[in-house]
Amino acid sequence: MPKNFFFFLVILGFASCGTPGNENKFEKFAIRQDSLFIDAYKQHDTVSYQKLLKGFLSEYQSLSSSDKKRYANYQSNAYYNLCCTYSLLNNKPKAIESLKNAIQSGYFDYDHIQVDSDLDNIRKEKEFIEAEKSIREIGDFLYILKKGEKYNQNDQVVIPKFTYQSEGNPNLVALRSAFHLDSIVGTGDEISKMVNLLNWIHNMIPHDGNHDNPTVKNAMSMIRQCKQENRGLNCRGLATVLNECYLAVGFKSRMITCLPKDSLKMDNDCHVINMVYSKSLQKWVWMDPTNNAYVMDENKGLLGIEEVRNRLIHDQPLFINPDANWNHKQTVTIEEYLKHYMAKNLYKLECAVNSEYDLETRSPGKIVNYIILIPSDCIKHLRDGDAQKNPEVTSTMVTYTTTNPAIFWQAPEL
User: Using CA atoms, how far apart are residues 150 and 190, in angstroms rounded to an integer?
Assistant: First the structure.
């Protein structure tokens, strides 16, 4: 069964950011070529497919190293579909060769390869079985997450103190007033207020994973710009807006960047959601504005990231709210959202030490401290105070690393 990479990206909203110039030109070429690959596959025409592949590789090899990484999926997808074509023709050596080329180019869709009937002719071949095992190590996300279960509870790395900007901050006061947030949250209990804000952001601003967020990245500015330009935000932008709105009405909230293990260093995708602290439950709870989603246990109790991660690892039941959706176009399912996508992206977790208004806007001289929580088997990362400058605006990002979830998930002072 062929994999149409462009279709996959559009449906899930994970496409790379489109930019003017050669990148856009190549992307249009790659999408067109992908369609031609599918046609050749359907006709079992390996001669035409090889000619198309030669032309594609010629263009691909002319890209810069960063663009090769960005568009590597088109190359791996082309090799994979060629593998399917040869397998259907029962040309086992060529099929295995193409599959190896696909893996070498970054192919890692373990779930797809398990069920693809196109590969049945080669499935029992020794080289296929070995290739399948190698793909599992990079593409079976739940399997990888389970292998990354262990943390080091004794890790006592020293990090700056977590802070949460007071609702009395003038910028947050202005945000609360400008968008009538008190009316949005309503007069219900704490959880209903959190959910009302989540729904409001999700319904007001669509998710757009194909473009960068505005240069000024605070809630006041981004909400107005989205309305004026009839545009959306990516998951980080949506989480930024929701985070600042939570702070504005007095909730302690963090933006959490959920990251994959990414053994091949080719996965440019991550997901950003919010964790907001519930006083009544005395814990952090999961709120995802991209998918209008929160996660529950079998008793409809709200869960946080740490709990969801543990339940995925131990195959315990998980539930999501029935109105979870992507842009009111696609229902969010537990299987795709949690067991596949978030299983991939809950391997490493990162957040800013200071949760505050306009945190995401980059400016000269600005220093932002981040802390990243990683499993014990991932401790090769640089440790305390790993600083990276943004050369465009001379801002500095400082990252602290821990393997102790108690440090990362410490409750805020109330």
Answer: 33
CA distances from 69 to 76, 224, 359 (A): 11, 34, 29
Q: How many helices (H) and strands (E) does the chain have?
A: 17, 13
Quote the domain boundaries for residue 109: 5-139
Q: Are residues 287 and 219 in the same domain?
A: yes
Tokens coding 397 = 């990002």
Residue 42 lies in a domain: yes
Residue 199 CA, chain-centre distance (Å), reads 20
Place of tokens 């590789």: 57
Strand pairing report for 325-326 and 330-331:
antiparallel
CB 283 within 8 A of CB 317: no
Residues 198, 239, single domain; the answer is yes
Residue type for 352, please?
A: A
Spatial distance between the Cα atoms of 368 and 351, rounded to a whole number of angstroms: 10
Is the residue at 402 inside a domain?
yes
Using CA atoms, how far apart are residues 256 and 30, in angstroms rounded to an integer?
33
* Angstrom distance (rounded) from CA 95 to CA 391: 45
CATH code, domain carrying 108: 1.25.40
Asked if residues 71 and 63 have their Cβ atoms less than 8 Å apart, the reply is yes
The predicted structure's pLDDT at residue 395 = 75
Residues 6 or more apart from 21 whose CB is under 8 A from it? none
**Tens digit of each residue's pLDDT (9 = 90 or more) over 204-246:** 999 998 888 999 999 999 999 999 999 999 999 999 999 999 9
Q: What is the pTM of this model?
A: 0.87
Residues 124 and 257 in one domain: no
Strands 319-320 and 325-326: unpaired
